[in-house]
Design goal:
Blueprint (H helix, E strand, L loop, with lengths): L4 E4 L5 E6 L5 E8 L13 H8 L11 H6 L3 E6 L4 E8 L3 H13 L5 H20 L6 H9 L14 H5 L3 H11 L5 E7 L3 H12 L22 E7 L5 E7 L6 H14 L5 H9 L3 E8 L7 E8 L5 H18 L3 H18 L3 H14 L4 H10 L3 H11 L5 E8 L2
Parallel strand pairs: 2-6, 7-11
Antiparallel strand pairs: 1-2, 3-5, 3-6, 4-5, 8-10, 8-11, 9-10
Helix pairs in contact: 1-4, 3-8, 9-15, 10-11, 11-15
């Protein structure tokens, strides 16, 4: 059981405190309810660009790293299609330094043409290095655009086009900040060797006077049900042929999400998984194969991808994947197989919660999903899944009409 207390400031900032006296450290995690899905389709990549800009200093603090390092801490951030997260870890006795830094960043981020140009160049180079020039780098650009027709999950966090980052203006940046970076759109978690009353005082002192900002009403286009199979073939200068197949699954708080998550373990959970055993070890069609889902808040994707052994025809490999899925749809899984997967899932969740920073981020994320206490109750949702549930979910998800397939073929 992970204990926490929660309160909300008058300006709408939700604050969660998770005391842990076993450590001398503390983590301050600020999660903003904004990700790539909230971008204008003609101006993508903003949420990720913002993550970079947020490290450029605020009006009163020119350099974030220097005062934090003097306090014995470090910080980092990440952006997804659903959210943006900033966190500091430092000795608990210096926690006020983190409050000072994060409150000033929320209140008065320093925007100027120079900082925008510096971070624009950094992001553009990242785009080129990881998504244009890297082998298989554009896979998810192509696969998302194939699987999604309406929902903004159709572009990646880095952005749909390099051109969108190249053309961003200072007014664009300021408007995005004003719309999304405010107390009403954020959750702050303080975890570690702290006391709730102490955190209440610091939260009021450093964040209480920040204006709530406009209330952001998310109104995203729903993705219509896929009614026919989609297919794309690409040829590129890559070492091996690869196949990518994806199917739409339910959103993050649906009971069906937990069934789909367990299915990915059945098919792709390491060396004992069905796909690895059948298609790598026995039939030797793939050099590696995996199954996973994107973990997105809105309805996401379950994915199977693998690199083929040289000389194997990609259609044969595709047929072999479909054969394994048909077996699963026909026979389901045994109770013992399900129990083993549930135990593995429980172990993974427990291992993840060992890290103070992970606990803080999980509490923030669960609060964004609507209930911070999911950190304590979510395991029961996995335990409640039956073998029959898994069978029915396989039959619903793994249909031809729900499938998008990308053949990524080598020119060599």
């Amino acid at each position: 059981m992970i204990h926490f207390e929660k309160f909300t400031l008058p300006n709408g900032l939700r604050v969660i405190v998770h005391p842990d006296t076993s450590t001398p450290m503390a983590v301050l995690d600020v999660m903003y309810d904004v990700g790539a899905r909230d971008e204008d389709p003609n101006k993508t990549g903003f949420a990720h660009l913002f993550e970079h800009l947020m490290f450029g200093g605020s009006i009163h603090i020119k350099d974030y790293d220097e005062p934090l390092q003097r306090a014995g801490g470090d910080n980092n951030a990440y952006t997804t299609n659903d959210l943006t997260n900033y966190y500091c870890q430092l000795p608990a006795e210096n926690i006020e330094t983190a409050f000072w830094l994060e409150s000033d960043r929320m209140l008065s981020l320093a925007f100027n043409a120079k900082s925008l140009e510096v971070q624009r160049k950094v992001v553009c180079e990242e785009f080129k290095e990881n998504y244009i020039n890297k082998p298989y780098g554009d896979v998810w650009h192509k696969l998302r655009a194939l699987a999604y027709q309406s929902h903004p999950y159709r572009w990646m966090t880095i952005g749909e086009k390099l051109q969108h980052i190249e053309e961003v203006t200072l007014p664009d940046v300021k408007a995005f900040f004003k719309k999304h970076y405010n107390p009403r759109n954020a959750v702050m978690v303080v975890a570690g060797n702290v006391k709730t009353e102490q955190i209440k005082i610091l939260a009021e002192k450093w964040f209480g006077d920040i204006a709530p900002g406009p209330k952001y009403e998310r109104n995203l286009p729903a993705e219509p049900m896929q009614e026919f199979p989609r297919f794309l073939e690409v040829k590129a200068d890559v070492p091996l042929d690869a196949i990518y197949k994806c199917w739409h699954i339910e959103d993050r708080i649906s009971d069906r999400y937990y069934r789909a998550d367990l299915i990915t373990e059945v098919l792709g959970g390491g060396g004992s998984s069905r796909l690895f055993q059948a298609l790598v070890k026995e039939k030797k069609l793939f050099s590696n194969i995996d199954c996973y889902h994107l973990g997105s808040t809105d309805a996401g994707l379950l994915v199977i991808d693998g690199k083929l052994v040289k000389g194997v025809h990609i259609k044969d490999a595709d047929d072999a994947i479909n054969d394994e899925l048909e077996k699963l749809k026909s026979n389901g899984i045994t109770e013992s197989e399900l129990e083993k997967i549930k135990n593995r899932t429980e172990s993974a969740m427990a291992f993840e919660d060992m890290s103070l920073a992970n606990r803080a981020a999980s509490l923030a994320n669960y609060e964004m999903l609507g209930d911070a206490n999911l950190i304590n109750t979510e395991l029961e949702k996995y335990r409640a899944v039956t073998a029959y549930d898994v069978l029915q979910e396989c039959k619903q998800v793994f249909t031809n009409n729900n499938c998008s397939t990308l053949y990524y073929l080598s020119n060599n």
